[in-house]
Amino acid sequence: MKKLNLPIKWKLTLWYGGILALILVTFSSGVYIYFQSSLQKSIDAKIKSIAEVLSSSMTETHNQSLFGNFERYLENVLGKKPKGKFIQIIDSSGKIGAKLNDLEAEAVPVSFLTLERALKGETVYETIETARPRLRMITMPILENKKVISIVQVGSSMEDFEETMKRLLIIMIISIITAISATIIVGYFMAKKTMKPVDQIRRAAVKISSSNLDERIDIKGRKDELGRLAETFNAMIARLKDSFQRINQFSIDVSHELKTPLTILKGETELALRKERTNEEYKRSMESNLEEIDRMSNIIDDLLLLSKAETKDIRLNLGRVDLRDLLADVCMNMKLFAENKGVEMVVRDLEDVRITGDELKLRRMITNIVENGIKYGRGGGQVAVSSYLQNGYVCIDIKDDGVGISGDDIKYIFDRFYRADRSRKRESGSGLGLSISKWIAEAHKGTIEVKSKLSSGSLFTVKLPI
Ligand SMILES: Nc1ncnc2c1ncn2[C@@H]1O[C@H](COP(=O)(O)OP(=O)(O)OP(=O)(O)O)[C@@H](O)[C@H]1O
Ligand SMILES: [Mg+2]
After folding, report:
1. How many helices (H) and strands (E) does the chain have?
2. Is 394 in contact with 464 (CB distance < 8 Å)?
């Protein structure tokens, strides 16, 4: 079966309209049937009581001569003139002894089958469908010494009953139609109102593009599911906006970062070409150019690594790494750089521990952090490296007593291109070192934490699982 693609508001409306119709029709049918049967029972009780009174009066009196004025006889026995009734007495041979017909219909057919059953001593109730109006009739045998001496038939017009049932039916149909229409109309508008935010969300989504991320869905304090959906949607747009801004900022930073060495390169080259130079001068100029080219090349390498890391395009070259050897080796290598800066390189207790990791990357991470400690260190100060075990992790502390990092900056130092002090940027580097280090630590399921106070040094702690 083909699925109907009705709007939700219509589906909802039809569903509760349909369910209400089903409930009302079932309930009304029940009421109608109950009413019908109880009305019929009350008619039956009435004709039965008349038949019984007649039956007993006749067995008492035996006075058939009274039939001469049957109407008077009935008035005497029943206490009043019977209205809208058909009453007749039939003797045992089947002859009509007396008859009263206070009905509009003239001929009241008497079925032989009924008479036969009455002659056998049975009381029969029946509805005479052919009479107009219909007739409810009781046929009761009058017994004497267990023998049927005659039969009394009492019929009552069902006109009032039919009229009442017809009215009830009309009232029910009108109420059902009114209730269902009202439900459908009210339901439709309610469903429409409820679904309005969905449409708002859809329209907002259509409008959103990378240049238009200020668009928000106005839900006016709704706290229901749709309100939360809109909120979620708004939060998503905000995150997208943030990401786009970061990408934008990143492009600006990259261009800026590459532009500086290029400008220097250009300036140097132009200067060298301005007049004839000695070989020595050319060599010096080329050397200076090579420095800038190295610098750019490093930035591009770093960026490439970070981009690959971000798209998970990079794999760790895992192996057993002796962390103590690695730390000692890095410190050895950095010793000369530290001495040039007037900083002492101190190696404290190193835990003898082996972990699974990518040796080159781990080396790069530690070098970055130690190098920072030296670069941002204080002349005459020191950078100390130590390691210890803690809850299944090996912790590597790299502590310096240099410039430190302010509370404002510390949140950002792991961001790409972030440098706390931009004015010293030529010597400080490109601001990618800690981003890369953080990625390396996380790729090894570890963390990097930093504690620092401005002008009293910093402590970087790398935690790696063993
Ligand atoms: N030990 C430290 N003491 C004080 N400031 C630090 C220290 N380590 C990092 N910082 C601050 O954090 C910033 C980011 O460090 P990061 O290593 O990412 O970049 P960088 O050293 O400037 O450049 P790169 O490492 O790419 O050559 C640095 O510019 C510096 O301001
Ligand atoms: Mg650095």
Report:
1. 11, 12
2. yes
* Total residue count of the chain as it appears in this document: 466
Give the C-alpha distances (Å, rounded to integers) separating 390 from 365, 387, 394, 446, 449. Answer: 20, 10, 6, 13, 15
CA angle 462, 342, 437 (to 5 degrees): 20
Question: Is 430 near ligand 1, meaning CB less than 6 Å away?
Answer: yes
**C-alpha 161, offset from chain centre:** 55
* Cβ pair 96, 88 in contact under 8 A: yes
Ligand 1, from 428, 432, 455, 460: best to mutate by most atoms within 8 Å of Cβ?
428
pLDDT in tens, 16-72: 899 999 999 999 999 999 999 999 999 999 999 999 988 888 776 555 555 667 777
Whether pTM > 0.70 for this model: the answer is: no
All domains in the chain, ordered by first residue: 8-163 (3.30.450.20), 225-310 (1.10.287.130), 319-465 (3.30.565.10)
Distance from C-alpha of 329 to C-alpha of 110, rounded to nearest angstrom: 125
| DSSP-derived 3-state class of residue 160 | helix
d(CA 195, CA 192): 5
CA 372 – ligand 2 centroid, Å: 5
Instruction: Give kind and range of the element (H or E) at residue 459.
Output: strand 457-465
Out of 370, 372, 438, mutate this one to test ligand 1's pocket (max ligand atoms within 8 Å of CB): namely 372
